[in-house]
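Obj.: predict assembly geometry.
Materials: sequence records (below).
Method: joint structure prediction, all chains together.
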Amino acid sequence: MGKLRNVSSNPHVRSSVTTQNIMVWVLIALLPATGYGIYNFGVYTIFLIGVSIASCVASEIISAMVLRKPITIGDFTAVVTGLLLALNLPPAAPLWVPVLGGVFAIVMVKQLFGGVGQNFMNPALGARCFLMISFPAIMTNFNCDTYSGATPLFNLKNSIQVDIMDMIIGRTSGTIGETSMICIVIGALILFAVGVIDYVIPFSYIVSFVVFIGLFGEYKFNWGYISAHLAGGGLMLGAFFMATDYVTCPITPKGRYIYGIILGILTGMFRIFGANAEGVSYAIIIGNLLVPLIEKVTIPKAFGIRKKAKKEAMKA
Amino acid sequence: MARGTFKGGIHPYEGKELTKDKPIKSVLPKGDLVYPLSQHIGAPAKAIVAVGDHVLTGQKIAEANGFVSAPIYSTVSGTVVAIEPRRLATGAMCESIIVENDEQYEEVRFRPRKRYDEMTAEDKIEAVREAGVVGMGGAGFPTAVKFSPKEPDKIDYVIANCSECEPYLTSDYRRMIEEPELLLEGLKIAVSIFPNARGILAIEDNKPDAIKIFKDLTKDEENISVKAVKTKYPEGAERMLIYAVTGREINSSMLPADAGCIVDNVDTLCAVCRAVKEGRPLMERIVTITGDAVNNPRNYKVRIGTSYAQLLDDAGGFRKEPAKIISGGPMMGFAIFDLDVPTTKTASALTCLTKDAVSQFEPSACINCARCVEVCPERLIPKNLADAVEHNDEKKFLHLYGMECCECGCCSYICPARRQLTQLIKGMRKIQLANRKK
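Observations (raw structure tokens):
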């Protein structure tokens, strides 16, 4: 008997996709929106983005050390969280805001619940909502060097004329990464092309949102009004980059449709009937909390199992 | 209806170009031949020779021990030198008959039971049973049992599984190119056993030349047709293939016959033809010796019982140090730690890879990406099944249809966190199956 070789259970080959390169694709896909945000709101936003990412990565390292768990920054999930958090901040927020947000996102939402893959809600959105509730004045102040005044969604809610073209390109006030519909859609197309996300969640989200706005909105199925709602606020960023967050969306095929529809309805409800102009963050977070339930009721029938056969298979 | 494909599945690197254009080479075995008594599903065969006996090529050396079992024949002439446990490709030890080859290849005179046109369906099934033919695609289910469903008149299709979806393997492909008449003849015999059946050759569309050959050969046949199926792993898995060809679905507790189908692999049908027409027992098969670690990868016509080591020698040995040696293909095969393993009725290939993709990565935390759900051909949720196994939650495992898993390996292949999903699910299935038997 010569040298003994490795043995293992089948299969013996693996695809080239890893957690790490999925996260790198997400970062690449966020570049257009990030770049436009910096161009639109000025150099200061670079600091906000940098501090946010640094805060998330540092929180991950320190919390992993304290909790005596392996340090997993190599998978870039903390970087993605940091960038998403920054894109959800107003452009003139003081620098301690991303620091606090990053700590909350990583320590509270992610690490304390078990680290990568175990968080019950999207860390970046969890942090944003935390900041919104704690510091509403800072988080809703969208005045900065380039813009002053209300966001298009606020104007929309208060029946003030908005410019759709500006909203699609992104020449409006808002959070750093949410204003440019075009840039976000370019990023989303990248993710579709490399197979990182699939169309089910974003499209069922957007379609159900459109239907809801059409039925209950102020102007019903007025396409100008509806497109303003689509281009405004965090809907695009939320639909393509937050709702599709792997960890906090259902993995069952039917569950994904249901999840998207719930998000659409909730977002519509918050925007039309709520006190605030925006509702994407809260909608997604509530959707996240419903995921275990959705998954439970949408377990697909296995291949070749019919209703009658189901009982037998369970018995056997 | 039949769309020629199924939902899910993966497209791994095929690696078929290594061997696909090289003709089959016959090799005569050297040294001792090893015949494990368990080369099929069902009861192990019972040895009917003793140490010291002289045997001829084609002499029965072990008989079927029960209905679901199969006899085994010597593939060389020589002397029985030992009956002792030997290691199989699966890693298990199995009682085996060892025959010292005298290199004379003195053959028993084979005679069909009756003239072919006088044979009834029962005669044909009996000839297949006596020849020890089993499913040679890997499962090793005795073919005679497969040919004896409760209601033979309810069989609508006999499907020749020519898809060969396993990466690297080209043994079925070479057989189709080089001996298409033999395969077709075997399929016709199988079809003739069932009064209402028609034959379908299901070939993956990455083998256009094979599709063309069989389209030409069958153009005047009323009862036989060719169906091109989509190239995708695991297209050749029995349940997937039946769905792709007929649109009918069966689950793990059903047999293909429940959907009116009989599915047989290429080599199996060739063996059926030999058994019925010539009365020849199953003694040879095509084995692909391949992988980037092998000097001259190619296909061999092998006498069953020849050791893998000899085949590898003939293929020029190793070009580079292999990291992993697999009996079978990389998706479904068994990794072996040593080459001293005999070829059996179900040994389709020896794949020698210079890279071991499994040991390259440590499994990390699941990120819930749902890729395993997308690729699972059985529409399961491998991630939740694996979690249930890790928590030892048998009830949840069964509730999530864990027993429906076909162990194709798609979920492990695609997992970006490199979790051992298939292995976990497979382990729990084994436990459940063992508990059932109690």
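Conclusions so far: The mean pLDDT of chain A is 90.
To do: check interface contacts against the pulldown list.
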